[in-house]
Every structure is written in structure tokens, then in C-alpha cells.
Amino acid sequence: MNINWYPGHMKKTKELIKNNLKLVDVVIELYDARIPISSKNPEIDKIISNKPKIVVLNKYDLSDPKILKKWLDYYSKLGINAIPFNALSGEGMNNLLNAIKNAAKDKIEILKKKGRKLRPIRVMIVGIPNVGKSSLINKLVGKKSAKTGNKPGVTRGKQWIRIRKDIELFDTPGILWPKFDDEKVGLNLAFTGSIRDEILDIDELCLELIKTLLEKYPNNLKERYNLDNLNKEALEIMEDIGRNRGCISAGGIIDYTRIANIVLDDFRKGKLGKITLETPEDINNSAE
């Protein structure tokens, strides 16, 4: 599958970030903890340049704990402050607030020395669609202030949101980049719901996910769908899942689209277990 999705509003978002960056003290970039490589927009670092940045590994509760530790060690060695976060429960909130204040400490000291009136720390939140920016903001504010949805591309326009007396947030819509150089990146983004299902072949996407899970987490598939034999082609596994879940139409025809929706939903909600599809070693392998 060759996947790309770059609607017009994403180009506008890129300009929005550039034009308002001068107002910002700290940038928070959200990654999906299950796919830290694929969910990192390669254009963001170029745009924000030397602005202090905090990496938030959202949905870490859905990720493989052993691989998450590898990622935290990896970022630590690079001198990057990476914080595991669950935007739905708010777990990781105190660590994030402390990181924001530490990242802006130098800027605040400069203002103090100049005798300027202290203002709230200005934070910009950026990330790909459906990575949890709006949910993060709602947890920070403590109420629903940013529009949320389970479809990528829901947040529109720009908005400053006061979350504490000393912190203001600048929210931006989700932004991808014009072309994925690696086919796996597009697939991983599609698996996790960062690309609209409506533009994809869901049946084919499910087949690709099953192939990936057979390679990385075969036991998760086996246990979730009561599979006896995994020594089969991915299509046969998909059909076995369909039979076990009753996805059979009149006349004994297998409903592949129904199976696809079940498997993708189970993966996205963590019902297939704690899964991470990328490791730091993948960065080194791709560079070779």
C-alpha cells in the first residue's frame, strides 16, 4: 500500500506554526508511543529550530513497556526530555508541567533581569493528526476547551488557551508532511488512525497489520482471536479471525471489511495488548 495524505489545511497549519513561533517559549511535540519514528513529523524540527522542545510520548499505556524504556533511554542519551503521557487519564501531568517550567526557565530569567513584567509561559503544541493534542489540552485545562474527535483533522484554526495562571497554550491542528519516503511510515500512521480510514482500502490495511503482528506480536493475535495455527498466510489468518468472530455473510461468504474494522479497532484501543511497532534500533537500521 502506498499511502499519502496531505489535505490543503495542513499546508496552512505549517504556515500557522511558522508565523506564530516567535510568540512561543516552549514547543511540545506529541508522538504516538507505539510508533515514535512514524509519528514524528520530520519538518517540525526544521520549523522550530532552536526553540526549547519537550517530547510527549502519548498513549504510552497502549505501548510495550520494555520498548518504551528503550525509547526513554534513547531520548535521554540525546539530551531530549521525553515524557510518557496518557492524555485520557492525565497520567504524566506533573512531569509535563515541571518540564514546561524548566524549559522556559532561561527565558523567564532574562525577562526578570530586564525588569519586564512576568507573563505566562507560552507553549505551542504540535503533532500529527489524532495523536491526542486536544485530549492533552483538555487534561491540562481541566475541562473541555479544545474540540476533540476520533477522526484525524478535527481541530481547526488556532487558539490560545490559559491552562494555569502561569502557562498559556497555543493549539494547532494536526499536521503531516507532503510525502512519506518510507512505505512503513504511511502504514503505521494508518494503523494507529492518523490517516482517515475513508481514503484507505481498509481490507488491505488490515491484511498489512496482520502481517506486521505476525512478525512482531504473534501471540497477541493468537490469544485475542483464539487462533490454533499461525503458520499460514496473512489472508488465511484474517479469514480464521472472521470465522471465529462470526463475520460470515449469507451463503458462507466472509465479510472482510467487517473483520478489518474489528482488528483495526482492537489494535487502536489496546485490546490486542500492549504493542509497539518501532524500536530505536529501527532508526539505526534505516540509516544503514
UniProtKB/TrEMBL annotation:
One Pfam family hit: MMR_HSR1
Sequence positions that bind GTP: 58-61, 130-135, 174
GO MF terms, alphabetically ordered: GTP binding; GTPase activity; RNA binding
Residue ranges of every copy of the CP-type G domain listed in the record: 13-178
Main location: cytoplasm
Keywords associated with the record: Cytoplasm, GTP-binding, Hydrolase, Nucleotide-binding, RNA-binding
Keyword hit for Nucleotide-binding: yes
SUPFAM superfamilies listed in its UniProt record: P-loop containing nucleoside triphosphate hydrolases
A GO term from the CC aspect: cytoplasm
Protein family (similarity comment): Belongs to the TRAFAC class YlqF/YawG GTPase family. MTG1 subfamily.
Its biological purpose: Required for a late step of 50S ribosomal subunit assembly. Has GTPase activity.
Listed name of the protein: Ribosome biogenesis GTPase A
Taxonomic classification: Bacteria, Bacillati, Bacillota, Clostridia, Peptostreptococcales
